[in-house]
From TrEMBL, chain A:
Family: Belongs to the binding-protein-dependent transport system permease family.
Gene3D superfamilies: MetI-like (1.10.3720.10)
Topology relative to the membrane: Multi-pass membrane protein
Keyword Acetylation in annotation: no
GO cellular component: plasma membrane
InterPro entries linked to this entry: BPD_transp_1_N, MetI-like, MetI-like_sf
SUPFAM superfamilies named in the record: MetI-like (SSF161098)
Name of the molecule in the record: Peptide/nickel transport system permease protein
Compartments, as annotated in UniProt: Cell membrane
Ranges where the ABC transmembrane type-1 domain occurs: 95-304
UniProtKB/TrEMBL annotation, chain B:
NCBIfam families found in the cross-reference section: PRK10419.1, PRK11308.1
Gene3D superfamilies reported for this sequence: P-loop containing nucleotide triphosphate hydrolases
Segments forming domain ABC transporter: 8-255, 277-523
Keyword annotations from UniProtKB, A to Z: ATP-binding, Cell inner membrane, Cell membrane, Membrane, Nucleotide-binding, Translocase, Transport
Stated name of the protein: Peptide/nickel transport system ATP-binding protein
GO molecular function: ATP binding; ATP hydrolysis activity
Family to which the UniProt record says this protein belongs: Belongs to the ABC transporter superfamily.
First-listed, main subcellular location of the protein, grouped into a coarse class: membrane
UniProt-listed PROSITE patterns: ABC_TRANSPORTER_1, ABC_TRANSPORTER_2
Gene Ontology biological-process annotations: peptide transport
Keyword NAD part of the UniProt annotation: no
Organism superkingdom: Bacteria
Entry keyword annotation includes Cytoplasm: no
Length: 314, 546
């Protein structure tokens, strides 16, 4: 177990080094840099040279890279060229917003989708199953921004139940903060429910056909126990993998949704920083996304043997 | 005849599928307390559905539309679902065909065994544990206490089936429905499992309804049998008298097929025929990592053999004897740790890429499972055409002609446009044979090619292999645990145990007068009709166990 973890962590370091190099190069392949974008047409060559020297952009790429890595190793992610704020603090503040929404939405989605998918599989080909599949397909086909706007129009404008613009941190005013995140969480949860219900249903149908389910019934077990102890653990393993992938994707930024709901999340920060060629922030965001992705996959892999002991950890 | 109510009395049941076609048209069956009876039929005869209707565990959409199922006089067809749940597990036990999928992979063996006891009895945790351990010991699982915390995937197929038996017999059911309980096992494990089952059933006075297509097992283990065909009973009565004097043509056909597969291959291979494949001192060692059992085990050690043109050499042995690994090693699919393999006189293991490529193209393989060895999305014509893709000196029209020729030879003319799922198991295996033969290879390796098929289909497929060999003279390495199949096709037999050849020689010599005790045990375990040992009374059976 310990050696497994050590091996996985060292593999993670390798992955992240590759991510770091790729991110660093990709950012610089986009034409224009922070200095020229900040000064615009009006800037003189001297001003440009001064700014570039200040941010180290006059150095060759390998030197810039080494400076960046050296900073990272001592916990210094650099300073935003756009606002002058330290990158790490900036990203973490923005990440909190995204993380709250994504985690809340995902928890709701899993809690709703897995039982519903299991039920639909159990009732396969009944009208209830058909209804579940139709709604799920509808949900996952709707673009997130459109669903978000629809909810805003209904609950924000027509009914005036919830605010339509702005954001307040949970630390400042809990109930107001809640009113701002309900709609984005609902939007995201509805869409993920569409994806997860179909997955949970499909894998439960696979499992229900297997003989150990009939064997459990042949022991005289009531249906709910068959579903809870024999179908659910086996059907959940593939869904878990999917949850991990979706979670990694979403935490990396739900820029579209954050834009619709004017939330100061990491997705929007990333987009803004790309437009401003704010290299330190873009690099920091993408690296953090990489770390999250790898960590979530590690957690999923660690959880997997609980649901499927055939996948040994050793 | 006694006036006593039989344990099970199935009266004129009809079972329909969702589209209202009758799977079971009319089946009658009675079973006395403690009796052992067989329900025999080919796949599609309705035997599985008929047996599942006893526990009312029919698949969704399938329902019983007529008839009564009386368990000690109580009509199960009209019992409430609650009453059925009381009976299932407690009075009615069921054992399934595939021990690989009939135990829940995500639950420890102990938890699965305890489940039914917790449900039907008020025993304490400790008492349940004790009972489970005792029962596991009875089915000869070593380290029974350790087994409780292990998961099903840690056991072999035979062990899983024994665990299954232990778990079902814990509650001492009055009736046990065993649906093809040994079809997925090798001959030795088959014997072991059924002997145990018989022994436990006798001790607990449990009646057993054995669902099978294997007449050899029926002859050996059951007193009564019912033959099913297309959902109807065609013949029923004492097993011994039906096997000796079948009245119905269908039963006769079944028995003839089972007996025919016991007939010896008769054509003689000239001793000066050239060797197509020659292996010298071949060893394969799996490292500790791939083998998982801790030590770097020798799967095959120092095996030498040659296969001549037109000859079929059978490699037999139980699971784990190394026969499959040997087959793969000879084709270069697993690396050798030592030894040398010559194909048509050239060393293919250390040889140049071109030689190896040629050898690989010249050896074709037929796999065990016709369900998974064919691409489900590819049409039959294109599956069979595929091996011809790399043949350069053949015009496309000739290739087309060759494909239809081969399909005609295996009896599948006109099915080019079909997809694998539209064919039966026997037909799929014919496709696999056609695919192997389309290049006219000098050597065909067949790994358990008929063990997934019904008895009559087996006979047909084996017949086909022999006929094609007679026409094209390919050499054949036939890997099998099924001695009846081996008897039918092989000229020579090689017996393997624990990676070594323990005995080899002409088929009739080895199977007629085995010299090595392991061979004798294999032959002993193979169920055969008309073999007096197969009809011994139940009391003798337990003695044979190790």
């Amino acid at each position: 177990m310990a050696t497994y973890l050590a091996r996985r962590l060292s593999m993670m370091l390798l992955t992240l080094s590759l991510v770091a190099v790729t991110v660093f190069v990709l950012v610089r392949l986009v034409p224009g840099d922070s200095a020229s974008l900040m000064l615009g047409e009006a800037g003189s060559l001297e001003q440009l040279a001064i700014l570039r020297a200040r941010w180290g952009l006059d150095q060759p790429w390998p030197i810039q890279f080494l400076y960046w890595i050296k900073g990272l190793l001592s916990g210094d992610f650099g300073v935003s060229t756009r606002t002058g704020e330290p990158v790490l603090a900036l990203i973490l503040a923005r990440f909190q917003v995204s993380a709250v929404i994504v985690l809340a939405a995902m928890t709701i989605a899993v809690l709703v989708a897995v039982p519903v998918g299991l039920y639909a599989a159990w009732k396969q080909n009944s009208w209830a199953d058909l209804a579940v599949v139709s709604v799920a397909t509808l949900l996952l086909s709707i673009p997130s921004f459109w669903l978000g706007l629809l909810l805003l129009v209904v609950f924000g404008l027509k009914l005036s139940w919830l605010p339509i613009l702005g954001y307040v941190g949970f630390g400042e005013d809990f109930s107001r903060a809640l009113s701002f995140v309900i709609l984005p969480v609902a939007t995201l949860a509805l869409i993920e429910i569409g994806v997860l219900v179909r997955m949970a249903r499909a894998s439960a149908i696979e499992v229900l056909r297997l003989e150990y389910v009939t064997h459990a019934r042949a022991k005289g077990m009531p249906e709910w126990r068959v579903l809870a102890f024999h179908v659910f653990p086996n059907a959940f393993a593939p869904t878990l993998t999917l949850i991990g992938l979706i979670l990694g994707n979403l935490l990396g930024g739900i820029a579209v949704l954050e834009t619709v709901f004017t939330l100061p999340g990491m997705g929007r920060l990333l987009v803004e920083s790309i437009f401003a060629r704010d290299y330190p922030v873009v690099q920091g965001c993408l690296l953090l996304t990489g770390v999250i992705f790898v960590l979530i996959n590690l957690i999923v892999d660690m959880l997997y043997p609980i649901f499927d002991p055939r996948v040994a950890r050793a | 005849m006694t006036a006593q109510i039989p344990l099970l009395d199935v009266r004129n049941i009809e079972i329909q599928a969702a589209n209202s076609t009758s799977i079971v048209k009319s089946v009658n069956l009675t079973l006395a307390h403690g009796a052992m009876a067989a329900l025999v039929g080919e796949s599609g005869s309705g035997k599985t559905m008929a047996s599942r209707s006893v526990l009312r565990l029919l698949p969704p959409g399938v329902r019983m539309t007529r008839g009564e199922i009386l368990l000690e006089g109580e009509n199960l067809a009209e019992a409430s679902e609650k009453r059925m749940r009381q009976l299932r597990g407690r009075s009615l036990g069921m054992i399934f065909q595939e021990p690989m999928v009939s135990l829940n992979p995500a639950m420890s063996v102990g938890a699965q065994m305890a489940e039914a006891l917790r449900l039907h009895t008020s025993l304490s945790r400790q008492e349940i544990r004790q009972l489970c351990i005792e029962m596991l010991e009875r089915v000869r699982i070593s380290n029974a206490a350790g087994c409780l915390t292990a998961f099903p995937h840690e056991f072999s197929g035979g062990m899983r089936q024994r665990i299954m038996i232990a778990s079902v017999m814990l509650l001492r059911p009055k009736l046990l429905v065993a649906d093809e309980p040994t079809t997925a096992l090798d001959t030795l494990a088959q014997r072991e499992v059924l002997d145990l089952l018989t022994e436990l059933a006798r001790d607990f006075n449990t009646a057993v309804l054995l669902i099978t297509h294997n007449l050899g097992l029926v002859a050996r283990y059951t007193e009564n049998m019912t033959v099913l065909r297309e959902g109807r009973v065609v013949e029923a009565g004492k097993t011994a008298s039906i096997i000796a004097h079948p009245y119905q043509t269908y039963t006769r056909k079944l028995i003839a097929a089972a007996k025919a597969s016991q007939g010896l291959a008769d054509d003689v291979i000239p001793p000066d025929a050239p060797a197509v494949l020659r292996a010298t001192d071949v060893s394969v060692t799996y490292g500790a990592r791939t083998h998982g059992r801790g030590h770097g085990a020798a799967a095959v050690s120092e095996v030498s053999l040659d296969i001549r043109k037109g000859e079929t050499v059978a490699v037999v042995g139980g699971s784990g004897s190394g026969k499959t690994t040997l087959g793969r090693a000879l084709l270069g699919l697993v690396p050798l740790s030592s030894g040398r393999v010559e194909f048509e006189g050239r060393n293919i293991i250390d040889g140049k890429g071109a030689i190896r490529r040629e050898a690989r193209l010249g050896c074709q393989m037929v796999f065990q499972d016709p369900y998974s060895s064919l691409d489900p999305r590819q049409r039959i014509g294109s599956i069979v055409h595929e091996p011809l893709r790399h043949v350069q000196d053949m015009a496309p029209a000739d290739k087309e002609r060759r494909v239809s020729e081969v399909l005609a030879e295996v009896g599948l003319s006109g099915l080019e446009r079909r997809l694998p799922h539209e064919l039966s198991g026997g037909q799929r295996q014919r496709v696999a044979i056609a695919r192997a033969l389309v290049r006219r290879p000098p050597l065909v390796v067949a790994d358990e090619p008929v063990s997934a098929l019904d008895m009559t289909i087996q006979a047909q497929v084996l017949e086909l292999i022999r006929d094609l060999q007679a026409s094209y003279g390919f050499a054949c390495l036939f890997i099998s645990h099924d001695l009846t199949a081996v008897r039918r096709v092989a000229h020579r037999v090689i017996v393997m145990e624990a990676g070594r050849i323990v005995e080899q020689g002409a088929t009739e010599d080895i199977l007629g007068a085995p010299q090595h005790p392991y061979t004798a045990r294999l032959i002993e375990a193979a169920p055969m009709i008309g073999d007096p040992a197969g009809l011994r009374p139940a009391a003798d059976r337990a003695k044979v166990l190790p």
